[in-house]
Amino acid sequence: MGDGDLVLDVGSGDKPSWRADVLLDRYVDSAFAGQRSGRDSARVSRPLFDADAADMPFADGAFAYAICSNLLEHVTDPVGVAAELTRVARAGYIEVPEAASAKIVDFPSHLWWCRLDETDPDAPTLVMTAKNAPYFDAEIDAYIERAGVRRALDDVLNSKFDHRVIQLHWTDAVRLRAEGELDPEFAAAALVAPGHQRTWETVAVQWVTSVMTARTRRRRRGLRLRYNDVVKPALHRPDNPVLEARIYRADAQ
């Protein structure tokens, strides 16, 4: 990826990627803080489009690269999001929680168990299986809560973080398969359930990343990206304004 390539962060939340030029997040206000890290609202450090990831307002191939980290486990239509990622970007990165780890400690805001099918090593497929409860086993979950060991287990799992998540780099197409049906009531409850809580490790990683990427971020501050450069032709505006660090909504500009 070249220094001049446009990057989109889908589901940017309160921790947008340092390299992203444009952000997209569906739930930006405090009512859905649980979908992020418990913060009140999404971070608007760059142009942020408030839109559905399964129906993005962007033009075909508008971005060289799309980052989609810790989003697909929250959405009701991961297949639709995968199709949109393929449409608006030429390559990208997806990160989701791995099922075996999530079955030990998961978050009630997650809707899917995620696995990577590598039967064909040249074309790995992300498999999303619908959850029907916020835990894998009710008795085990009750024990973890009663014993007060959820945080300790979470820390152990995070110590081997590369095994806790699936990190999928894709080019040209996202291969994703959804299995099972989501219960509408469970999905609605997950939308307002408590989310991840930021730890000191997360804060430390963000600080180190900020320091290491400072030079590149300074170079890109002068980027003048116009509205019509990224949105679908049907959404073009006559004034074609330069994008700013604020929230954009295609149906109410």
What would the keywords be for this entry?
single chain, 253 residues, alpha/beta, three-stranded mixed beta sheet, 28% helix
Verbal overview:
The protein is α/β, with parallel strands linked by helices. It has one domain. The chain is 28% helix and 18% strand. The protein contains nine helices and ten strands. The protein has helices spanning 78-88, 99-102, 138-147, 150-158, 161-164, 184-191, 200-212, 214-220, 227-230; strands spanning 7-10, 22-24, 48-49, 65-69, 91-97, 112-117, 125-130, 165-171, 176-179, 247-248. The protein has a seven-stranded mixed β-sheet. Strands 6-7-9 form a three-stranded mixed β-sheet. It is globular and about 60 Å long. Residues 199-214 have low confidence and may be disordered.
Quaternary structure of the protein: single chain
Q: How much of the residues is beta strand, in percent? A: 15-25%
Tally of helical runs: 9
Can you write the helix and strand succession as a string?
EEEEHEHEEHHHEEHHHHE
Count of distinct structural domains: 1
Spatial strand order of the main sheet: 8-5-4-1-2-3-10
Distance between the termini: 31 Å
Largest sheet: number of strands, sense, barrel closure = 7 strands, mixed
Helix content range:
25-40%
Rounded to an integer, what's the Rg over CA atoms? 19 Å
Number of strands: 10
| Protein structure class | alpha/beta
Q: Give the overall pLDDT as a whole number.
A: 87
The poorly predicted ranges are 199-214
Looking at the structure, what is the overall shape? Answer: globular
Protein name: Methyltransferase type 11 domain-containing protein
Organism: Nocardioides panacihumi
InterPro entries: Methyltransf_11, SAM-dependent_MTases_sf
